[in-house]
Amino acid sequence: MNVRKSRAFPRVTSVVLAAVLVWPLVACADDGEVQDELQVVENPTAATAPPSPETTTAPEGVVIGADDEAPIGDVTALATDSDTGVLAVAVQDPDQVLLYDLDTLEEPAQEPTTVVELPGPAEQLTVSQNTLVAAVPSASVLARISLPEGELHTTSIRGRPTGTAPFEDRLLVSLRESEAVAVVEDGRVVSTIQGGLNSADDVVVADGYPVVLDRLRSAVFAVDVEGRNIGEGLRAGQGATNMVTDSFGRVFTIDTRRGAVLAFSTDPLLLRQRYPVSGGAYALAYDERRHLLWVTLTERNEVVGFDVRGGEPTEKHRYPTIRQPNSITVEERTSRIVIGSAAGEGIQVIAP
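^ that's the sequence the OP posted. Answer follows.
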């Protein structure tokens, strides 16, 4: 199904905010000291997933890799590729990417079709043109895995790569340690964009506009690739952790510390919605077919699906999950969601 992208936003409601651009990013106090308007605290720490309790309700759907027959380690990232029919699961201890057949996910005891060894744990997985890209910050490596074969090629990227996003014929890479966004073309870094970041923890492209997430400042920033400049920035709550784009040119982020979903437009960068979501909101995934935003709640071992087409998110689904649901992805063909446990309890497949 073709999805028409729109720049228009619905009429606002009580949870929709009209935000003002925060530029410049610094201001002077009465004593002349320079202050950072976007920084949450003086010595910030990045927000992380709240710990999960033991599960008390059976997880919805099918759970794979939760027993001794085909165990899965702690899941760090997930991705699906409908074209090749592959589910990719990044795990640690040992650091690997496990490739599964999407057509057989209803079999709890199934084993991966391919196991790819990595030089460290993958923090993020993305798919572009039948190639899986794994960001491995501990080794400062981008791992490229052909799908469905699983052939591995690695590229050294200085600065601890954390996330990637296709941009035209190039690849954008967020670099945590370098506090920058790298532009990769033909497997090599052709430019590095810096300025104003304390950390670069993920990057996305919404309707042609790149946005980088800074977890330390709990803020999002526009990225001008051609001008090689980090542009305007906006606070994203008190502890932003993850972000995803939708079909309407928006960027959704999670404020994990305050429990909220935030929606930003990108041209210009404006905060459009803030919707409270309690229970340890952390991982995000978007279903383009149904326009559902999926949010995992690690404090409750739950996942919630919101319809985001209207003036505010509307809850449509809520399911119990495996423990510590720190990652989630959507399979485009069927709208199934796959959830990964960061506590060694496997992966969960739900057909809404």
